[in-house]
Design goal:
Elements lengths: L2 E2 L15 E2 L6 H10 L31 E2 H20 L3 H22 L8 E2 L5 E2 L9 E2 H9 L5 H14 L1 E2 L4 E2 L2 E2 L25 E2 H13 L3 H11 L8 H7 L9 E2 L17 H13 L2 E4 L2 E4 L9 E8 L2 E8 L7 E7 L2 E2 L6 E3 L6 E10 L7 H5 L1
Parallel strand pairs: 15-19
Antiparallel strand pairs: 1-2, 3-4, 4-5, 6-9, 7-8, 10-11, 12-13, 13-18, 14-15, 16-17, 16-19
Amino acid sequence: TFLEGPVLHAGENESFFQPASSDDHATLFEHCARALDSSLRVGAHGLPLFGTGDWDDGMNRVGELGKGESIWLGWFLLTALSSFADLAIARGEPLRASAWQAHAANLREALERNGWDGEWYRRGYFDDGTALGSSASAECRIDSIAQSWAVIANVAEPSRATAAMAAVHKYLVRPNDKLALLFDPPFSQALPDPGYIKAYPPGVRENGGQYTHAAAWSVFALAMLDEGDQAHALFSMLSPINHSSTRSDIQRYKVEPYVMSADIYSNPQHVGRGGWTWYTGSAGWMYRAGLEQILGIQLHGATMVIDPCIPKAWPGFEVVVRYRSATYSVSVDNPHGVSRGLCDVTLDGTALLGDRRRLPLVDDGATHHVRVILRPLEMRSTSIDSMVS
């Protein structure tokens, strides 16, 4: 079933009420499809509407008049539309799939045409057309999630995607403070007013502190760019145990070292102090970043994909994967000191042919031994380190 409630009146941004269950029923796919269909309206720059908050609900006045646009949401929506277009085709809905694919193509063009700021992607536009997350902005000049999702969406112009993450490394990652900021500088006095995010002091929570959910996305993006050293360094920096390794660290961090903290302050009076713990989705994203992107172990139905992106200094690693009643003992060797490489794979002593990164899984109750040897890829023409230096 669906939920029902009153439509917001003109000038009303939110309403609190007890929703009722609708008599209308639909499949889970249809629920998702209607959500996607409702997000296809665009603003003057051809970008998705920001509304009263996209991912960051603290920015609830960026698009409250219905004209503000979100560049981050553009990348995110591209990813969702692509995945759901495949589902729609599989379910016999080619017209819906075609509409989503056409919108995605237009959206990609608009993102490159109106999203790129010169060194990174902007965050969006206010209702009055003022850019958010631009080098011309006095506050929130660069926001990390627009850069990370340009990479995660896997459709951005490659040189721009690399430059965008180089900007994150240069302007938002602070190794000495063990912080990866959501954006910088924090909101304080500048106009237009982005919303209640300014109620937080500068450098606290979303307002220019580290919002760990977003920082985990940066780990994803770095690994997808084959930057194994940087991805692992950022992953280690975000790990809560590394915020509590000394007595002084403990006194500064002040929260539990065994769970992810949703946010960590960058405010000069409280640098490194942890915020809310226990409730953040960043824990799941960190787990996925480590397992799926750095170690490169992904499960897709009855197939295991092995595609690591590790520090060059790692000689290798081992992972045990259980698939139903079977156990797969995976050993990855890195004799050439690469971050990502072509994979020579053997399964129980037999070399795999074809796409050797894709391993078929069998529910047979047995223990299987997988050996992977990484070989160098062709040298990439540009790296984040060279761009930063």
